Amino acid sequence: QVQLVESGGGLVRPGGSLTLSCQASGLSANAMGWYRSASGKQRDQIAAMTNVGSTKYAESVKGRFTIYRDNAKNAWYLQMTSLKPEDSAVYYCAAWTVGWDPTDADYWGQGTQVTVSS
Q1: Most buried of the four, 28, 45, 50, 113, by CB within 10 Å?
Q2: Which SS3 state, helix, strand or coil, does residue 71 take?
Q3: Residue 50 burial by Cβ neighbours in a 10 Å radius (0-12, 13-18, 19+)
Q4: Distance between CA atoms of 50 and 18, rounded to whole angstroms?
């Protein structure tokens, strides 16, 4: 059974940093990524990477967020810096077994809330 479990969300002040984690089990992913959904809005991809290290980022987070993985732990992470109030959202990790279609993923985590507020 495939399972993705996120952790690391919480409340952070503007300008602060936070790192999200996604622990995968029962899965050998071709690609992994992170999406977010602000209240009432669609879920958008913000970062993704393949298992050979190619990465892509949404323009809104380029230079501030970094996706990386730990193959030994079958986990991936989203390091977020210079956080802004508009980064507040529910963040979801995602995985693909083939390709990395940004419109959908094969597997999803349950989501973790990130709130950026003073």
Answers
A1: 45
A2: helix
A3: middle
A4: 22
pLDDT tens-digit series, residues 47-72: 999 988 899 999 999 999 999 999 89
Average pLDDT of the chain? 94
Question: How far is the CA of 33 from the CAs of 1, 8, 67, 117, in angstroms?
Answer: 19, 15, 8, 25
**87: nearest Cα among 23, 33, 24, 35:** 35
Helix, strand, coil % in the chain, rounded to nearest 5 = 5, 50, 45
Give the integer Cα–Cα distance in Å for 63 and 111: 23
CA distance 114 to 10: 5
Contact 24, 95 (CB under 8 A): yes
- Tell me the Ramachandran region of residue 15: left when phi exceeds 0, alpha when psi lies from -120 to 50, beta otherwise: left
pLDDT digits (tens, 9 = 90+) for 84-101: 999 999 999 999 998 888
The Cα 13–Cα 118 span in angstroms is 5
